[in-house]
Design a protein that fits this description.
five-stranded mixed β-sheet, 548 residues, Beta-Lactamase, Alpha-Beta Plaits, 18 helices, alpha/beta, 4 domains, Udp-n-acetylmuramoylalanyl-d-glutamate--2,6- Diaminopimelate Ligase, Chain: A, domain 1
Amino acid sequence: MTITESKNTSFSVRDALALPPLRRGEPEILAGAAALGTEVRWTHAGEGLNLASLLKGGELLVTTGIDIGASGEVQRRFAADLAARRIAALAIELGSALTSVPKPLVEAADEHGLCLIAFHREVRFVEISESVHRAIIDRDGELIRRGEESRSRLISLMLRGAHISDVLVELSGFIRNPVVLERSGQGIAYHACFEADDATVLGAWGSYTRGDVAAPAAISAAVPTGESGTWGSLVALAVDSPLEPQDQVALERAVELIALALMRRQEEEALTARRRGDFLAGLIDSHSGEEKIVAPSVERKIAAGAAELGFAHDGGVLLPLVIAPPGRAETDGEDSGWSAVRRDLVDELEQQAVPVLAGTGENGNVLLVLGLARAGDRERLGDQVALLIARSATRRGITGQPTICIAAASPGWVEAAAELGAAAHAIPASANLDPCPWHDVSVASPDRLLFAFRETAELREFVDQQLRPLIERDRQGRSDLLQTLATFCANGGHKVQTARALHVERQTLYNRLRRIEESLGVDLDDGETRFSLHLAVRAKRHLDRTDH
């Protein structure tokens, strides 16, 4: 994005030349007119070839030209040294030492972009210093005063319960121009007009974002988030009036409050999510035993607690599910990127009139209960949840696939609590499996059973007895017989389907199966043998990932 700047927000060479003590000197710009907008930080008066060594940059240097050197080479070096110091301008008073500025000095100044000024009348260096310094201090003070005025107005507005949109409207009135709050990578979050209508402002914004020559002047400030991130930017467009130096200060003051408001909103949202998470986790702890309490009073109490947290669902069924962001199994708290994905999911479902109660668990998992009109909507909504999460993660540049476990639809809260616990307990085992849109916890799974026994010596011994010869052969021959066996078992011993799944020719598959039978000393056509091997390869997957 090309940013078009407004006129300089600091005291410039052009501003200095407008002051009476300099105006009386009849100034003439001999070179470097393009640098008239350069900021003047201070003034310095002096003589001699070593002036550059005394300067720090940003000075308006005033001199009579004594001892600038008699040769053109020396004069050129004098100008080059001053330009290297990045002074604001060089002003030479004619009459005392020089009747005109030497041509080599003018040429060198023009070559290096140094603003060179000649005073054709006598000037008083002390008056120049006093007037320039007073103007700089006055302008800085005015900028601070105006900035604090805008900040005070905006703080007062927010203390009265105003939102970020209200702050932007107030800011646009203060600077008499439209302002645009842009979210990084997502376009306009909100804009506030002053006099021009929406179409005009959006048209100007389009020109600005493309970097068109015809785009209006603009000033901008980044909106920070967290310790080092950037949420977006706040931009003021010179559509209704010219932008003034104090507008930049007002913009920066507004950015501070917007950043605080965003942090406050995120903190409030995080606290709410944790409160809801505590409620749902409490349900799991209280109703996960074999003996379920189904007293009507208990059901009403849970429903009342859910309603207090904003869950409004009358009739129908409840669908519990748990989402585990990738790599979060052993880490407390919720990652900021995935918390944004969670918010996106909740917003999308609420926009589709799906009741949602979502909270964050202690280990960063997301606990959810959705309200459905009927149990038959379960699979469709499960697919939709997975799709919405994937879209949000892609849009936010987040990698890795979460583990989503969806339990059975429940007629009431007591049953939903037990099912939510089942989904939460299924997360570790499901995370060990191959990625899929979502895992169905409502059906029995041998993988969850194997995962539960993953640390037992008996399971490790079983896997070793069944598969060790094949593992050794794969390791020595760098073959993929174990993967072939796993695919063969997963496809129920059907060779055509197995070859298709492995993307190999049938004869290749037949050769691999023969080598597997030789290594293990088994007959793969025997159903009992195939079942035992299938159990072993599925158990090995959990053992491998536990070891890592």
